[in-house]
Amino acid sequence: MIKIGDTIANRYYVLEHLGTGGMANVFEARDLITSKIVAIKIMKEELIENRQNLFSFEKEIAAAASMSHPNIMEIYNGGIFNGLPYIVIEYLENQTLLDKIEYFTMFSVKEGCSIMLQLLEAISYTHEHSIIHRDIKPQNIFYMPNGTIKLGDFGIALNEDELDNKSQVLGSVHYLAPEISRGKPANAQSDIYAIGVTFFELITGHVPFEKEKAIDIAVAHVKEKFPSPCKYIPNCPKEVERIIFKATKKNPKERYKTAKELYDDLMLLKENPGLL
To answer: What is the pTM of this model?
Structure first.
């Protein structure tokens, strides 16, 4: 258990409880060496007995600590405190993209393209390092006050050499690629599908399949036609619609082969504002 006033690793003085996620409690702390404010994620006590939870938490440390990119949240340190694993991460005084969507309803197509370009830079970098994120969604993308986008939460990311047909079906069902629901392993195209869904949500304010039960949403991703963003924004540019449709093809082989290809298509839009 961690409490306000605790000092972790003789270095991090706990200041405040920031919130609770699916696997961890998050605290604000001060680094006594650098005086920097950081965030500490510490696994919930009730989850420690489950080896898969521990593995997932450790993967977040290993995956994110191996990378350094301006559009990826930094991880500074990690260890064990009172028997519970923790990680020390960059403290972001900002909102997630989901927070922004809920507040503003949706982004303009131009704003959405700008956000996606930054996200794709991060994903291109992770894929180049053989890391598949597997949980791309607005809740895991942070919007900095200066407009910078940062991708976080690598808790279920896996290295490509660890991905096989036995990998658990993880991720958020609204963003889950059809092949994963069918029991296939995640890969770069699965991340691209989630990026396409995220782009759709940013500019429409809706997820593509709004159903009550998770199983119905998963089945819809497998069987139902992906909706056009024009359903919610009638004046959506055709090129944006084409990009979203290509990123979210049911067959992974028909999607963009790389995040860089998707990035290049969006960059063409940015360089030709008449298309927007």
So the answer is: 0.82
